[in-house]
């Protein structure tokens, strides 16, 4: 769509993690098609929304490589140039400070902050449970830094709210295809509604309501479905829990019928296995969906979320 844009060669794009996420966007990038609505997304959950809503009209690229920890992202000169040439940027303010800074410095007309499209909540510091997130991120305000959990995409209801806002932004930015964006948004929201129903029905009758994770990413999901998330290590998901923490979790596991310690695909399972061994618990994967890799239990958001539901049902003893 933006005829000024000069595409980065495919090889360079791949090395930067800018390769397209679907066959559709890959084809447009390879052919140099500048007639499409060019969207630069910050990381997988944002790119997935852009692809689902943009459909055939959008060329979507992600700033974060598959398998890369989103919080660790640094923006290259080439990526800044790509942002400048794009028709829209879709990001989640507060999750990736480097992206927030880069987007704020570009002249791009359509800047879509997903965090502004729903209500972010404080889940006891869950928003800062990653290594390197402690304290104040550069460029973030006091309000943004105080415990606001950015992991909203793990709640299908909040993700649907964001989808509706993204759809409206696409309609406004590319009015020639507004009807298709509206239709695609409605279809996505309906599918997210179905996922929400699956979680509600799948988790309402369970022996336990408490689950252990080594990454405090599931605060919204826990709140939505009446569960309690207990994160093991806080800031650094790969750190060893202290002896006192292990004892506390052992007691809680017995009191609340906890059977499983969850870990994720993008970080080491060392912490989870340490606790599981000491507390005589099982381990399994609960995926925070910050990226899709060959280790993911599914090829897209919906497949991985269904895998998460299955894992939770087993761990919680759902009927």
Explain what the structure shows.
- The structure is a single chain.
- The protein has 319 residues and is of the alpha/beta class.
- Helix content is 44%, strand content 11%.
- The protein contains twelve helices and eight strands.
- The strands form two sheets. It has a four-stranded parallel β-sheet with strand order 2-1-3-4, with helices on both faces. Strands 6-5-7-8 form a four-stranded parallel β-sheet, sandwiched between helices.
- Helix 3 links the parallel strand 1 and strand 2.
- Helix 7 packs antiparallel against helix 8 and helix 8 packs parallel to helix 12.
- The N and C termini lie far apart (51 Å).
- The N terminus is likely disordered.
Task: Offer a quick outline of the entry.
By secondary structure, the chain is of the alpha/beta class. It is 44% helix and 11% strand.
SSE topology sketch:
Layout: H1 10-16, H2 23-31, E1 37-41, H3 44-54, E2 58-62, H4 77-85, E3 88-91, H5 97-105, E4 110-113, H6 142-145, H7 156-173, H8 178-203, E5 210-213, H9 219-224, E6 228-231, H10 243-256, E7 260-263, H11 270-279, E8 282-285, H12 301-316
Parallel strand pairs: 1-2, 1-3, 3-4, 5-6, 5-7, 7-8
Number of strands: 8
Mean pLDDT: 83
How many helices in DSSP terms?
12
Unreliable spans:
3-33, 125-146
Largest sheet: 4 strands, parallel
